[in-house]
Amino acid sequence: MILSRRVHSLFPRSWPAFRQSSSGAVYRNAGVDTAKVNYEEKYAEKLQRKAREQGKSVEQLRMELKEQERLRRLQKLKEESSKSTGASEPSRAYQASPDASSNTSQPTPPLSRKDSSPVKPLSSIFNLDKILQSPHTPEQISVLWRAYHESRSDGTGRGYLCASLPVETYQKMLDVASKYPRFVIPVPRDNAQLGDGSKQPAYEFYLMEWGFHGPPPEPSRSDDPFAQSKPSSNPQTSTILFTPLQEYKQRTSFATPYLVVTHYPDLAKTHGVVLLRGELTPSTAASAPSPAANEDGGRYMLSQQDAQLLAIHVQRFYLWNEGSEERAALLKAFHETPADFKWEDLLKHTDFAA
């Protein structure tokens, strides 16, 4: 939903200030001070003890717990949506090669993880056995990954994003995200009408949060009797949750993410590729869709176009290459010197051509 209150109330005091008009549109005006979000301290002692046991900081542990709870809620929401529509995604793995359909004795992929990660394992989506049985180039894997997701939703691909990244690119993004795991992304909206009849550019702000879930095991053929588990040298699996700031303000850790992007590095060492999968949250009777979710009759909380825009901006702000100095400076300022963060500068980078 487009923000209906002052945006500055959505940020902790250490975050940059925003201002919007009574019409709900955020404008390129000066900001004001913000109120700090006070976190519950009821379980502070337990969190500190658990963080010491796991060798993590309290903040890292808090973010992991919040993220796991949010993903569990998202999964429940999807299950309820599937029951109401009678549609469900096939549980068997995708046939990853042209001759795979002739093999009727396929192994059944695991439907849940044995570890504590809330992320759906790649083997429940992609038939890794078929990938390993015959040589596949990164380009071929990318084509298969896209073809699978394009076949979803009656062949429209609606509700999903997909891409493949070179492992080097993903590692660069991961290094930056580990230092700066939160950011805000403005999504352009239709111009808002002011009282004097003029119009101003309007934006809906989304909070994005990275989560890290440890490296997945290196895949091995299930029919190999001598295969032994070994420490994984893959990069970490990661998720990115995109939640409207208004939703986050109202429900904090119980807020529903409108888009969840997962990076699967299972094939990073074997094939040098990391697979990206984005899932849009389905609309339900209990949750009204965002005003931007006008595609497919409001089946999703976010439109396909806005989901693609959010995913593109992840690379624009977290992949620091030549020419990205301004975006890198904004990300650093957001975390390190929030008083110097100017959201007017952020809006300069919302255009695809920027």
UniProtKB/TrEMBL annotation:
Single GO cellular component term: mitochondrion
Segments of skewed composition (Polar residues): 229-238
Subcellular localization: Mitochondrion
GO biological process: mitochondrial proton-transporting ATP synthase complex assembly
Keyword terms, alphabetized: Mitochondrion, Transit peptide
Region (Disordered): 74-119, 214-238
Domain of life: Eukaryota
Family the UniProt entry places it in: Belongs to the ATP11 family.
Classification via PANTHER family: ATP SYNTHASE MITOCHONDRIAL F1 COMPLEX ASSEMBLY FACTOR 1, CHAPERONE ATP11
Name recorded for this polypeptide: ATP11 protein
